[in-house]
Structure prediction request, 132 residues.
Amino acid sequence: MFKHVDMSSALRRMADRKIEEAIQNGKFDHLEGAGKPLELEPMPADENARLAWWAIRLLRKNDVIPDEFKYRKAIDVLLSQIRQASSSEQLHVLVPQANEMIRRLNTLGTNVVQHGYSPLDLGSELARLKVK
Prediction:
């Protein structure tokens, strides 16, 4: 029965009709940013890249930071503190904290495995401190 019906055109027409009805009913009159210029960013042509683009845009708009970025930032701060540490007590606190963040990052299951951090060795860090 629907063998010769162009479903994508039918769905597009139905969507257009629903949008027109919503406009007539004033559903779009009080949207956030009404009357302000749109912030248009170039959208990628590839469908997979476009989906990622939309996801990143939504995350950014809602101030959501993925765990991977939080962990990387925390690790970078801890590594900086470890490099500047001047006592073994500091290293005994900082190295386990850094290793815990590295463990969390490396077990996220994202593509972090390719660009992961290696756990720190407390003994090596203590030896480096004595050389300072």
